[in-house]
Amino acid sequence: MPVLVDPAPRGAARTGVVQVKICGLRTAADVDAAARAGARYGGFVFFPKSPRHLEIDAAAALAAEAPVGLAKVALVVNPSDADLDALLARMPVDILQLHGRETPARVTEIRTRTGLPVMKAVGIAEATDLPAIAAYEAVADQILVDAKPPREATLPGGNGLAFNWRLLQGRVWRKPWMLAGGLTPETVGEAIRLTGAAQVDVSSGVESAPGVKDAGAIADFVAAAQQA
Ligand SMILES: O=C(O)c1ccccc1N[C@@H]1O[C@H](COP(=O)(O)O)[C@@H](O)[C@H]1O
């Protein structure tokens, strides 16, 4: 599996087909639905408080059967070295998604230690949150631009919450980035048009219940993103 970097990552001047990540895959049918729909990335969540959480062996079994074209993204939150060692000893992972309070120094450490591409999530609610993206693009391979979770939220992501996409208009970053946060088959086209995102990520927006993926919604989401 080659390192996944979008050919035209630098902001609004998007060219080519939008690449899609379907996050929170929990069953073989979910993996199949994502791959058949044309998703580029499949996300596996390792966060026990999430309805999408998987034990390592369950995720490893799904990952082993995933088609080559679907990059396997392991979503972890403030992982210790021991957590990472345990995960990577048992599961083939193409990209690590860091979705906690990992500092830029910790991102560098994890990238060096694991040798894997790292995608760092940055939460956005207002313009003052944007400078964090620059700090992380210096050290991560990709940035996941997500909605900032509300203070009372149990999950650091996967809350089905969108942010004001206009905040990203005209912004240019050096590294590839992916738009996330409350996207749905109905809204992803507008989100892409407003932000110029070349990559998008969804979890709640393609579910019939928390943690239960809907194959039809996955197909609709990927089609809408690719047609935007
Ligand atoms: O999906 C989860 O349960 C989750 C848990 C902990 C951290 C992140 C999580 N999901 C990520 O959040 C964004 C947005 O998700 P949504 O589409 O708004 O539901 C996405 O990147 C997921 O990978």
Classify the helix fraction into a percent range.
25-40%
- Helix-strand makeup class: alpha/beta
CATH topology: TIM Barrel
Biggest sheet: strand arrangement: 7-6-5-4-3-2-1-8
Overall geometry comes to globular
Strand content: 15-25%
Give the number of domains.
Answer: 1
Strand elements, count: 10
The CATH homologous superfamily: Aldolase class I
The radius of gyration is 16 Å
What binds here, in terms of ligands, is: ligand LGQLAAA5
Pathway: Amino-acid biosynthesis; L-tryptophan biosynthesis; L-tryptophan from chorismate: step 3/5
Catalytic activity: N-(5-phospho-beta-D-ribosyl)anthranilate = 1-(2-carboxyphenylamino)-1-deoxy-D-ribulose 5-phosphate
Protein name: N-(5'-phosphoribosyl)anthranilate isomerase
GO biological process, one term: L-tryptophan biosynthetic process
Describe it:
Keywords: Amino-acid biosynthesis, Aromatic amino acid biosynthesis, Isomerase, Tryptophan biosynthesis. Residues 20-223 form the N-(5'phosphoribosyl) anthranilate isomerase (PRAI) domain. This is N-(5'-phosphoribosyl)anthranilate isomerase. Pathway: Amino-acid biosynthesis; L-tryptophan biosynthesis; L-tryptophan from chorismate: step 3/5. It comes from Dinoroseobacter shibae (strain DSM 16493 / NCIMB 14021 / DFL 12). The structure is a single chain. The protein has 228 residues and is α/β, with parallel strands linked by helices. The protein has one domain (19-227): TIM Barrel. Helices cover 30% and strands 20% of the residues. The strands form two sheets. It has an eight-stranded parallel beta sheet with strand order 7-6-5-4-3-2-1-8. A hairpin with a 2-residue loop joins strand 9 (207-209) and strand 10. The longest helix is centred in the last third of the chain and has 13 residues, at 215-227. It is globular. Residues 1-13 have low confidence and may be disordered.
